[in-house]
From TrEMBL:
Cross-referenced NCBIfam families: TRAP_TAXI
InterPro entries xrefs: TRAP_TAXI
PANTHER family linked to this entry: SLL1037 PROTEIN
Name of the protein: 31 kDa immunogenic protein
Species of origin: Peptoclostridium litorale DSM 5388
Amino acid sequence: MKITKKITAIILALVVIMAATVGCSDGKRFFNITTGGTGGTYYPVGGALAEVLSNNVENLAATAQAGNASVANCNLILNHETESAFVQNNVAYWAYEGIGSFEGKKVENVRGVASLYPEAIQLVALKDSGINSVEDLKGKKVSVGEQGSGVDFDVQNIFNAHGLTYEDVQIDYLSFSEAAQKIKDKQIDAAFVTAGYPTSSIIDISLAREINIVPIAEEKIDKMIEKSPYYAKAVIPAGTYQGQDADIVTATTMAMWVVDEQVDEALVYDVTKALWENRDSLEAAHEKGKSVTIDTALDGMAIPLHPGAEKYYKEQGLIK
């Protein structure tokens, strides 16, 4: 069985390489973007990007393929089973450094193309909870995501920046939907959610209870960025959630586009250029497309850029 699986993996890798080299029967070259599940954000944004590339890069046939999101996509890159993929930048960092889920198997061939849009770390509490800062969580019941998840990891970094530990609060490991229900039932006081905003679980709470989206102090975010370069600052605009009257500063990870380092430099240059010269098509295709801007293309870029992408950003003056 193991031998069969190895043979299958080798065949898949060869198919990707042959497709990249030989291309389509009509002279076009295949280019794959592995995304996430069809019910998520990665898949429709990836589909819109594939259309942009196919329409604006000569002799290229780009396709978006549903995938199992960040960790699985990094493993596909590792095994040369996809040319490019969408991943969270913190997962890309873990993969490149060989830590967390990738301990013992560094994905040294993963390279960055662009940071796409923020996946904000959102701290939600009930309005009458008295929680207006991270420090106010002391002694409170708090959901930190599922154990071992990216959210769990994010919260530990936030706590470290504030001089807190999990021993200072009453921790509950919950999914977003479970946390939303427990907040509504007043069984917990607050929850951390890392996701693109507006997030359905937080909307769910806001429709039943008055909520407070708690900011993270900018100097604490600076500490996080200094220690973990895949973080960036973000603002959740006023009015994102019912009852949210002010902009909220928080930390964010970024959804990013990565490629296998083996992909040709000229091709990566062309697809990077096509992305930024046609981003209005992404904006028209999906709500999250509005957040995809060249101004944040390098935010939280904690892995090396592919030389093709680097060349484009140097031409645009984003890199010296």
